Structure prediction request, 152 residues.
Amino acid sequence: MAAYPTGVAVVTAFDRELTPWGMTVSSLSSVSLDPPTLLVCLRHLSPTLDALVHNGSFTVNLLHDGARSAAELFSSGDPSRFDRISWEKPESVGGPHLVDDAHAAADCEVDHMHRTGTHVVVFGKVTRVVHRSAAQPLLYGLRQYASWPRSA
Ligand SMILES: Cc1cc2nc3c(=O)[nH]c(=O)nc-3n(C[C@H](O)[C@H](O)[C@H](O)COP(=O)(O)O)c2cc1C
Prediction:
């Protein structure tokens, strides 16, 4: 899929001790407008997936093009990833919001899940969307990050 460019998001959730978890994803897709539903595909051994399953809710943080280091941090497996960025707890259901790195965040309740091979497809019903800035989205394709071209 390297030749199919996408945006970049960080899926976050809290575990039962309210410890924050999160991972970089490009498998995000819109599914339905009514009810507003999206999906992400997460590796089945992921601690972020464990937290999301336990909590029944998660947040999709859409990264802006100044957030490459956050995308790298959340794909690194670093156990202290949340000590190295700014985040806050959402008002209601969901996972941590990445306050400096996301241009928007969608809080979701888990609707249903489907295991296929190494990954679990998680369908989330969107309960709230927070727009943080008008920054351009971060892009990923051909195994590298990119920015949306500026118009002349
Ligand atoms: C740009 C990019 C997109 C990624 N997309 C996904 C994805 O959609 N699903 C997935 O399971 N892993 C994806 N990964 C890999 C995870 O971010 C990585 O395995 C991470 O360490 C998983 O976190 P965890 O330890 O909490 O599971 C992606 C990595 C990068 C760099």
Summary: Helices lie at 47-55, 68-73.
